[in-house]
Write a structure and sequence with these properties.
The structure is a single chain. It contains 17 helices and 16 strands. It is an alpha/beta fold and 502 residues long. The strands form 7 sheets. Strands 9-10-11 form a 3-stranded parallel β-sheet, sandwiched between helices. Helix 3 packs across helix 5, helix 10 packs parallel to helix 12 and helix 11 packs across helix 12. The protein is elongated.
C-alpha cells in the first residue's frame, strides 16, 4: 500500500512535469515576443541548419494551417505572414493555465511570478493547482489511444490572443513534447487485491475538481481481458451529483461504453449525518449518536440516498445500493436503509461486510450486480444534449442537484461569452463543487431545497473535452489542516518499513 500511494504508477509525476513545462513555455513565449522584432523571433523559431537551409518543425505546420497560411517553406513567407505565424500575442489577462504540484499548499493559490531582475518587470499574478486538477490528468483519463492523447494535448487551450483567438499547446509547439512526457503514463498499472483479483490503477482526476473517473483505456483493456461474459467494475468518485453525473455525461460520451449497473455505496453513519446528526470533524472522536441505535435518525437521512438513487436511475441503469456495515449498526437501522432504497426504485440493496470479512462479505453484492446486469435493457440516457448552450447545460445540472436556479459572477459571464464565441459551447460540462452536499454549501446535508447555485468562474479544458464551472468557494488547491497526517509517518530504519500509512 505504501508503494502504491507514493511513487508506484508515476502518473502524477509525469502530469506535473508536463503541466509545468507548458506553464514555463507560456511565460517564456510572452517574454521573447516582447523583446524581439518579428524577423528576429521568426529566425529563432525557424533557424537555419548546418547547410543553411530552414524548415518548419512538424508541430509548426498545424500552426500555419490554423492561421490560414498555405506555404510550407519558411523562406516564402511575406513579412505579414511571418508576423501572423510567429506572434501568438498572448493576452496575459486571459491565461487560465496554472502551475501544479502534488502538495496541499494554500499559500500557492495566488502568487506573483516574474519578479527576478532578468525578467525585465514582466510580472503577472497566477497560482498553483493540485496536480490531479491539471487538465493533463483529465486528458489521460479520457483518452482512448496514444494518437487521441497526442491530439488532446495539442488542443489544450491556455488563454487567448489579444485578438480574442484561443491559443493552444500546439501553437506553442508543445504537443509532441507533452506526449513524450506522457507516453508511459498512458499505460495502466496492473495490480491485485489482497485476494488476487486483478485491478488496473490508472489516472486520478478528483471528482470534486475534475471528472473523477477511472481511465477509459483501463476500462477498454479490462473489458477485453474479461471477455463477453465477464464483469468490469469501474469507479466514479463521490455521489450521483458529481462522479455519476460526470461519468455518464462526459466519460460515456467519449468512451462509447454503456454500463448496465451502478452501485451506490451507503452507510448508516453517513445517513445519520444527513438526517441531522451531530457534526463530524476529522480527527475528533465520533459522537455516540453514530454508534448507538437511532432508526428515526437513519430514516431522516435516507432522503439523501433516495436523491442519489433517483438521479442515477435517470441515466437508464439498474441501481444497486451497497450498505457498508459497521459493527455498531443494528438490524433495524440496516433494514430502514434497505427499505428506503427499494422503495426509491433500487434494483436491490445489499448489506456488505467485506471490510471485516474480505471477499466473502461481498458475495451477495456480487450476485445482485450480476442479476442487475443480466436484466438491464434500457438505453443510455444523457442529462443534456451537447448542442444546447453552456448556460442551458449548467441549468439542467443544477436542477438535478435540486437548485432553484443559477447565478453567475461577472467573470463567469465573460468566460461564457468568450468560450461560446471561440466555438467551445458544445463541450460537456464538468462542475467543480463540494462533495459534501447536493448544494454548494458543505454544511447543508440531506436534500437541500431553496438554493441558487453560484458560479464564480468558468474554465475550458478543451483538450480533455469539457467546460468546468467553479461553484461557490471550491478550491483547486487544498490546504493542510492543523494536524496533518505527516506527524505519524516515519520509516523504520531497521526494516525499511513505512510507518503511519496503514
Amino acid at each position: 500500500m505504501e508503494e502504491f500511494n507514493l511513487h508506484l504508477t508515476g502518473d502524477i509525476h509525469a502530469i506535473t512535469a508536463a503541466n509545468n513545462l507548458l506553464a514555463a513555455a507560456i511565460d517564456a513565449r510572452i517574454f521573447h515576443e516582447a523583446t524581439q522584432s518579428d524577423k528576429a523571433l521568426f529566425n529563432r523559431l525557424c533557424p537555419a541548419n548546418f547547410y543553411g537551409k530552414r524548415a518548419f518543425a512538424k508541430v509548426m505546420l498545424g500552426r500555419l494551417k490554423r492561421v490560414g497560411i498555405e506555404k510550407t517553406d519558411p523562406n516564402q513567407l511575406t513579412p505579414e505572414e511571418v508576423k501572423k505565424f510567429a506572434r501568438l500575442d498572448i493576452d496575459p489577462e486571459t491565461i487560465t493555465w496554472r502551475r501544479v504540484m502534488d502538495v496541499n499548499d494554500r499559500f500557492l493559490r495566488k502568487v506573483t511570478i516574474g519578479q527576478g531582475s532578468e525578467e525585465k518587470g514582466m510580472t503577472r499574478e497566477t497560482g498553483f493547482d493540485i496536480s490531479v486538477a491539471s487538465e493533463i490528468m483529465a486528458v489521460l483519463a479520457l483518452t482512448t489511444s496514444l494518437a487521441d492523447m497526442r491530439e488532446r494535448l495539442g488542443k489544450m487551450v491556455i488563454g487567448s490572443s489579444r485578438a480574442g483567438d484561443p491559443v493552444t499547446a500546439d501553437d506553442l509547439g508543445l504537443g509532441g513534447a507533452l506526449t513524450v512526457l506522457m507516453k508511459d503514463a498512458i499505460h495502466p498499472t496492473l495490480m491485485q487485491t489482497l485476494e488476487g483479483t486483478p485491478v488496473f490503477v490508472h489516472a486520478g482526476p478528483f471528482a470534486n475538481i475534475a471528472h473523477g473517473n477511472s481511465s477509459i483505456v483501463a476500462d477498454q483493456i479490462a473489458l477485453k481481458l474479461v471477455g463477453s461474459e465477464g464483469f468490469v467494475v469501474t469507479e466514479a468518485g463521490f455521489g450521483a451529483d458529481i462522479g455519476t453525473e460526470k461519468f455518464f455525461n462526459i466519460k460515456c460520451r467519449y468512451s462509447g461504453l454503456t454500463p448496465q449497473c451502478a452501485i451506490i455505496v451507503a452507510t448508516v453513519r453517513a445517513l445519520k449525518m444527513h438526517g441531522g446528526g451531530p457534526e463530524v470533524v476529522a480527527g475528533k472522536p465520533l459522537d455516540l449518536a453514530y454508534k448507538s441505535e437511532n432508526v428515526e435518525l437513519v430514516r431522516a437521512g435516507c432522503g439523501n440516498l433516495v436523491k442519489h438513487i433517483e438521479n442515477t436511475r435517470a441515466y437508464g441503469v439498474n441501481v444497486i445500493v451497497a450498505i457498508n456495515m459497521f459493527s455498531t449498526d443494528t438490524e433495524a437501522e440496516l433494514g430502514a436503509v434497505k427499505s428506503a432504497a427499494l422503495d426509491a426504485g433500487a434494483f436491490d440493496a445489499v448489506v456488505c461486510t467485506h471490510y471485516a470479512h474480505g471477499g466473502e462479505g461481498a458475495v451477495e453484492l456480487g450476485y445482485a450486480v450480476q442479476r442487475a446486469c443480466e436484466r438491464h435493457s434500457a438505453p443510455l440516457k444523457f442529462l443534456y444534449p451537447r448542442e444546447i448552450s453552456i448556460k442551458e447545460k449548467i441549468a439542467l445540472i443544477a436542477k438535478s442537484y435540486g437548485a432553484d436556479g443559477v447565478e453567475y459572477s461577472p467573470e463567469a459571464e465573460k468566460k461564457i461569452e468568450i468560450y461560446s464565441r471561440q466555438g467551445f459551447s458544445n463541450l460537456p460540462i464538468c462542475v467543480a463543487k463540494t462533495q459534501y452536499s447536493f448544494s454548494h454549501q458543505p454544511e447543508r446535508k440531506g436534500v437541500p431545497k431553496g438554493f441558487v447555485l453560484p458560479i464564480r468562474d468558468i474554465r475550458a479544458s478543451v483538450g480533455a473535452g469539457f467546460i468546468y464551472p467553479l461553484v461557490g468557494t471550491m478550491s483547486t488547491m487544498p490546504g493542510l489542516p492543523t494536524r496533518p497526517c505527516f506527524y505519524d509517518i516515519d520509516l523504520d530504519l531497521a526494516t525499511g518499513k513505512v510507518l503511519g500509512l496503514s
